Amino acid sequence: MKIFSVCLVLIVVVFSTAVEAKLYKWVDDKGVTHYGEVIPPEYTNKSNVLLNDKGRLIKRNEEINNTERRTNEEDDAKKRIDNEAKLELSRKDKALLNTFSNEKEIDLARDRNLHQVESLISSIQSLQRAARESLKNYQQEAEGIKRAGRKHPVSLQVDITEGENKLAKLQLDLVKAQEKAASVKASYEADKMRFRELNGSTKK
Q1: For residue 150, is it within any domain?
Q2: C-alpha distances in angstroms, 121 versus 110, 127, 168, 174, 183?
């Protein structure tokens, strides 16, 4: 029994010694090679090797260079974006099919939305005509005063400036409304094309 216990202790000691004898080998940022039982944290993700007590290679860890890491991250991001885009397209397709049963309904929805925008455009154009006429009157009045050799009243110059600013703003509003109309038409045309694809139809 004593002999068995002594043998068991020797086995444990030998095994423990073998485990403790394993060494890591790594190279620091200055190119100096180091050996040790523990790798400093800043080098754990860089190239290093694990050696046994006889100096034989047990395991090699290769550093992933910045370019490869960046490429992998970009690939993962692209896959994530692609998956999100597919999910969004699927959601839109379901909504399109649930909202419309034929192309005529799409046209009707387009016309309803266009009517609102076109009414806005018409309103802006009416305001522009009135603003131009008002500004023209102010300018004619100023021209008459100038011909008479009199000084312009400050209030008249203020009216002219405000009239010019109003026309400039109305023009911006008109451009935005026209862009909105074009966007509505393009959006519903795209919906119609997608509706045809989903229904396997090629009719126009």
Answers
A1: yes
A2: 16, 10, 15, 6, 14
Domain region containing 155 = 98-198
Distant-in-sequence, close-in-space partners of 185: CB < 8 Å, separation ≥ 6: 110, 114
Same domain, residue pair 40 and 104: no
Residue 204: DSSP 8-state = -
Please report, as a single letter, which amino acid is at residue 30: K
Q: In 3-state terms, what secondary structure has residue 51?
A: strand
In order along its 204 residues, the chain shows pLDDT tens digits of: 545 454 454 455 444 444 446 777 878 878 788 887 777 877 776 777 777 766 676 677 765 556 666 787 788 888 899 899 999 999 999 999 999 999 999 999 999 999 999 999 999 999 999 999 999 999 999 999 999 888 889 999 999 999 999 999 999 999 999 999 999 999 999 999 999 999 985 444
List the one residue out of 189, 168, 173 whose CA is nearest residue 114.
189
